[in-house]
Amino acid sequence: MKILVAADGSKFTRQAIKYLIDHLGMFGRNPEVHLLHVRPPLPGRAAAALGRSVVQGYYDDETNKALASARRALEKGGIKFQELHAVGDPGEEIAEQARRGKYSLLIMGSHGHGRLASLVLGSAASKVLANCKVPALIVR
For residue range 30-40, what is the model confidence (pLDDT) as tens digits? Predict the structure, then answer.
């Protein structure tokens, strides 16, 4: 089974990773796990003022911070994984990566905002579910 795990470094990601580790047997023998972090882009003017190498360094640093706890947990659990990084709208990029990578399952944590907050603020999980054709497991 090919599994995409969306990770943002939050406690909700840690809960999703814990669920994967605790229920690994449900996902077949030696599932192929890919850990994805999507970083929202810096505003265009800020990115232009900072320059390409500074912006890339920022994206790399923030991605490393966001994936650190997920990496440790997967390594401790003895689960081999590959990392994927992207810049863009998290909800759209996660759904697109799930489709493009032909994954069997997407796993992600949800911040669990209420309906009103999701309408006003938007929710990565809601966007993913609206745009993703891959089965998704949302862990709360």
Answer: 899 999 999 99
Give the Cβ contact number of residue 38 at 10 Å. Answer: 24
Per-residue pLDDT of 27-79, as tens digits, reads 988 899 999 999 999 988 888 898 889 999 999 999 999 999 999 999 999 99
Q: Where are the domains of the chain?
A: 2-139
CATH class of 2-139: alpha beta
Separation CA 119–CA 76 (nearest Å) = 38
Is residue 54 a contact partner of residue 4, using CB atoms and an 8 Å limit? no
Angle at 35 between CA 30 and CA 39, to 5 degrees: 175
